[in-house]
């Protein structure tokens, strides 16, 4: 995905109905814009020329011609993360990865509902203990959440074994919160574990990619990331950064809401770790 196409997707939800028609046409017809005049594009999109100019300016261009020039320059370039090749230098690959991470974070900012993350924070504040579930690619995210919550003095446990997950959630109560992490939202073990936790009365929270998926049905609170990477990769790679950003957000909120207790716990943690350092 080139930079201009990325910007179109990032800004898509901010566009008016007519501008979205232009965005849809450009994204569905890569390479066909270059020979078109502004009038021809207006006819194809069923909008006015003024709307096309407004669309171009929204993307940061002075007008339609600058938009065309940008797309023409990028047309021969490979997609940012879909076609990393052995010919790419480490620096070039790093640039592509950064672009895709930026794209995922920007989309996640738009997908994540403010009320949802506020509700998740309150659920964690009220919980006697927090259980975080993650398998495969999501397991390190669960461990990171455990690490951060423990430092603040919250009783937290990460579980990345599907049998242990089932056992752990069977002992939860209405005083507990359970976080299930699954990019696809279709991890059977995570969904089933959340279902059991919900039956036990625990507050269930999921961190998953935007859209309908089985995990949503078993979650009281849904924290949505946004990434299209699974269209070209089985592994959800850069979406992990969006998941970590959500975890960090909850961490900072909890620290400041439990400031005295959290700071005392963080200091105690640092003292305990001093012997582990030279």
Question: Could you walk me through the main structural features you see in this protein, from its secondary elements to its overall organization?
Answer:
The chain has 278 residues and is an alpha/beta fold. The protein is built from 13 helices and five strands. It has helices spanning 3-10, 17-28, 38-45, 49-58, 64-74, 90-111, 114-126, 139-151, 162-169, 188-199, 214-217, 239-257, 259-273, and strands at 129-134, 156-159, 176-181, 203-209, 221-225. Helix 10 (188-199) links the parallel strand 3 (176-181) and strand 4 (203-209). The longest helix has 22 residues, at 90-111.
Blueprint (SSEs and pairs):
Blueprint: H1 3-10, H2 17-28, H3 38-45, H4 49-58, H5 64-74, H6 90-111, H7 114-126, E1 129-134, H8 139-151, E2 156-159, H9 162-169, E3 176-181, H10 188-199, E4 203-209, H11 214-217, E5 221-225, H12 239-257, H13 259-273
Parallel strand pairs: 1-2, 1-3, 3-4, 4-5
